[in-house]
């Protein structure tokens, strides 16, 4: 560790937490009605991160592949549920479709990056696996959630046009082609936007964290580039897989649109 690295104590953490009072003050002054949500979000975020920090410190010490894989599985399950929670319309089995899509795509890109690019030894090193997986999952759940929501909403909105195409002899893939394209664009857009401004408008969190921890900026940049390409690939694969699985549910092999399988969820 670099000698210039500054450790943050709990007193400094408390001072930083006081900054949330700015948000709460604005909410009260402007009558935004966000005071309770801000307080809960701040408390939840702090508790979760502190807990994760202690858990990861313990896992890093043990260096057990089974434990690392178990943590990765739990993270993926939570990511799958979070992705589905972003959708307004759902069908039976949507959670497992989302989970399988995110799990397979994340496992593929993380395995390829860790073994083929960074060449970590041992391959299950939690120092690399857990943080990288967290970043991939965070972006993948956003992409799949947005894409799936757009896909189901687009099918509902274009129902008459799609059924007309099917009645005229179009296959289910031909009829749903436009909706699939729009859903995939929606799911991939946040990652593309992030890549467009990275290094010019914003400095990524991983890169900033490495620099603050004492790493050379050039080393931090190279790691960040690897991570971003991994994130982009993982998001694309997860999004495509999720939409294709949804397509197979909402269109029968006999080329019928089954929107009756969708259930609209009222969110608070």
Main β-sheet description: 2 strands, antiparallel
Unreliable sequence segments: none
Spell out the helices and strands N to C.
Answer: HHHHEHHHHHHE
Structural class label:
mainly alpha
Rounded to an integer in angstroms, the radius of gyration calculated over CA atoms is 22 Å
Count of β-strands = 2
Whole-number total of structural domains: 2
In order across it, which strands form the biggest sheet?
1-2
Summarize the amount of helix as a percent range. Answer: over 70%
Summed over residues and divided by their number, the pLDDT gives a mean of 88
N- and C-termini, Cα separation: 47 Å
What would the principal axes of the Cα set say about the shape? globular
Number of helices: 10
Strand fraction: under 5%
Please give a structural write-up.
The protein is mostly helical. It folds into two domains: 8-62; 64-264, no CATH class. The protein has ten helices and two strands, in the order ααααβααααααβ. It has helices at 10-17, 20-29, 35-62, 65-85, 94-118, 126-157, 159-167, 172-197, 205-212, 217-250, and strands spanning 89-90, 263-264. Strands 1-2 form a two-stranded antiparallel sheet. The radius of gyration is 22 Å and the shape is globular. The model has no long low-confidence stretch (mean pLDDT 88).
How does the SSE layout of this entry go?
Layout: H1 10-17, H2 20-29, H3 35-62, H4 65-85, E1 89-90, H5 94-118, H6 126-157, H7 159-167, H8 172-197, H9 205-212, H10 217-250, E2 263-264
Antiparallel strand pairs: 1-2
Helix pairs in contact: 2-3, 4-5, 4-6, 5-6, 5-10, 6-8, 6-10, 7-8, 8-10, 9-10
């Amino acid at each position: 560790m670099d000698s210039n690295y500054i450790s943050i104590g709990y007193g400094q953490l408390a001072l930083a937490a006081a900054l949330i009072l700015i948000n709460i003050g604005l909410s009260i002054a402007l009558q935004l009605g966000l005071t309770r949500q801000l307080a809960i979000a701040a408390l939840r975020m702090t508790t979760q991160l502190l807990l994760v920090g202690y858990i990861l410190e313990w896992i890093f010490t043990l260096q057990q592949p089974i434990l690392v894989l178990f943590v990765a599985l739990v993270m993926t399950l939570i990511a799958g549920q979070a992705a589905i929670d972003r959708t307004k319309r759902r069908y039976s089995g949507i959670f497992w479709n989302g989970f399988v899509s995110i799990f397979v795509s994340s496992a593929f890109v993380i395995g390829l990056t860790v073994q083929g690019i960074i060449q970590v030894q041992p391959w299950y090193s939690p120092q690399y696996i857990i943080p990288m997986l967290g970043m991939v999952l965070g972006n993948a759940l956003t992409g799949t959630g947005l894409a799936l929501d757009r896909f189901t909403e687009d099918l509902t909105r274009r129902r008459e046009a799609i059924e007309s195409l099917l009645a005229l002899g179009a296959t289910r893939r031909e009829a749903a082609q436009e909706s699939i394209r729009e859903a995939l664009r929606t799911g991939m857009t946040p990652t593309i936007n992030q890549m467009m401004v990275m290094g010019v408008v914003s400095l990524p969190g991983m890169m900033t964290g490495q620099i603050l921890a004492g790493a050379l900026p050039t080393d931090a940049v190279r790691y960040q580039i690897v991570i971003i390409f991994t994130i982009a690939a993982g998001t694309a694969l997860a999004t495509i897989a999720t939409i294709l699985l949804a397509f197979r549910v909402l269109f029968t092999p006999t080329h019928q649109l089954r929107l009756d399988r969708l259930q609209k969820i009222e969110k608070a």
